[in-house]
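One record is kept unedited as follows:
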Amino acid sequence: MKKKSMLWTITCLSFLFIGYESNGQSLSAIKKEIRKDNALYFDLFKKSDPAIVNLYTDDACLLPPNAGAICGKAALAKDFKDTYAAGQVKGVKFSTLAVYGDGALYVTEEGSWQVFGTNDQVIDKGKYLKLWKKTKQGWKIFRDVFNSDHKRS
């Protein structure tokens, strides 16, 4: 009886493992892609490049603190354009703390961020969660929520 039970357990685990590998990437590979995309985000932002919106899905939403949701590429493009035009922020940096999920369709990235002013000094910092969605073009940001560590005055 123990032999049958053990064989059944091994068979089920094998199917589970095969299903995971065929439906999703390993978290290690996903983390590597996210790290690459975050570095690209930093470079595009520093250049005030509107191509930054291509890191987001077509139906993405940016969920900033103390403001309404900014959804869709057109709205995101306007938000980035306005931010670049204001000229107060010259860069951003993300530091991934963890990535959660099974890699089948979505993963969640948890991390901290920094915003740099015109003199390359940190002018704000905080934490974020990004929900990444697997697309035909690779992993894209689907939801992006963040807030500052600074207390509101």
User: Anything to note?
Assistant: Helices lie at 2-23, 27-46, 73-86. The chain has three helices and six strands. The beta strands are 56-63, 70-71, 89-100, 106-117, 122-135, 138-148.
